Amino acid sequence: MDPDPTSRTLTMLTLLRGGGEWAAGELAERLGTSVRTVRRDVRRLRRLGYAVEARPGPGSVYRLVPDVRVPPLLFTADEISAMVAGLRLVRAWSPDEDVASSALLKLDQILPRPLRRRAAATDLATEVLEQPAATLTAATVGVIADAVAADGRLRFRYTDRTGVASTRLVEPYRHFLRAGRWYLIAFDVDRDDWRAFRLDRVADVAAVAGTHPPRDFPDPSIEHWLTTDFGRAPGGRTAAADPDGSRSGP
Length: 250
Fold this sequence. Notes:
alpha+beta, globular
């Protein structure tokens, strides 16, 4: 049995959101709890604003009714602090975008009063002094994330450190922040090799239709791969995060 009622209720909500009807006994089995506890958690969801219907009878069958209203979010105060601090980082990294500020405003509108106070306090108390040398837009993050999750490919224009422009077709693996700059690690299809691209040199990122079999990254650690000349050197000196595998600094 999950001793945390909030975690257990969130799991129940996820099951109900999957659609269909759930008997109380089935929910109890999935949640590792009792039918009595299931009924109590259903009442808790209703108090939070979720429209959970029960079919009359001994079976106690439940279903979640779609509702356009947004009920209070099931977050703890510490989870809200983590979210707000993270959004402050995003706002510092992307000062020309309003996505982080918009998200903070929406949180303020839908959180219950005690959590609104915690969110406002965290926002007031958090300041980001060090910012990346190059920012990353939320749109670029989204395109990369979707491609990674779907085993997809990306095409973009890239200008290397010598000013040479090219079009790249890649299978993205991860994007990361290092030494104040954002990079994308991806398998370059045309060059048949793993490369690291500085994202401030990337333009016109677009998803390519279709999927591909996922490739295994050649090193268990991105940091080790970067600091061993992209896996070529046995030592730990810092290598460039550049697509041509240059041994100079980034």
